[in-house]
Write a structure and sequence with these properties.
single chain; elongated
């Protein structure tokens, strides 16, 4: 599948950066719909989830770099565990955003597909730590 470890690392890192970029675009698109107050004056709680996906997805690539730079296996695995948690929280927030009242929610499914690809790469990457 991958020629060597450096190719896997590069693909894994690129996918993390791509997810971060896509998350920002989707969040910007969704925020126009979600920023409108409801008829009772309340804000749509989903706007917070759109911000969460940006924050969480922006943490993916730096966490990969931290894991790669750690000299000891235990610390590498700690960063890998953090990545797993971020991935899990992103999936949860994507599911929440799929239910929001916005035309942009179909873009969330694209993000979910990319995150699933990332998750597969992550599982292989974790075996190399």
């Amino acid at each position: 599948m991958f020629q060597d470890y450096s190719e896997l690392h590069a693909d894994f890192y690129k996918k993390a950066v791509e997810i971060g970029s896509l998350s920002k675009r989707v969040s910007n698109y969704l925020s126009a719909d979600l920023a409108v107050l409801k008829s009772n004056g309340d804000e749509d709680i989903n706007i917070y989830f759109s911000g969460d996906i940006v924050r969480q997805s922006d943490s993916l690539a730096p966490e990969i770099i931290k894991a790669q730079q750690e000299p000891f296996s235990e610390q590498k695995h700690q960063h890998a565990k953090t990545l797993k948690g971020l991935t899990r929280r992103l999936l949860i927030n994507f599911r929440r955003l799929e239910k929001c009242n916005s035309d942009g929610r179909e873009f969330v499914s694209i993000l979910q597909k990319e995150l699933r690809k990332f998750n597969k790469l992550q599982n292989i990457w974790m075996l190399t730590l």
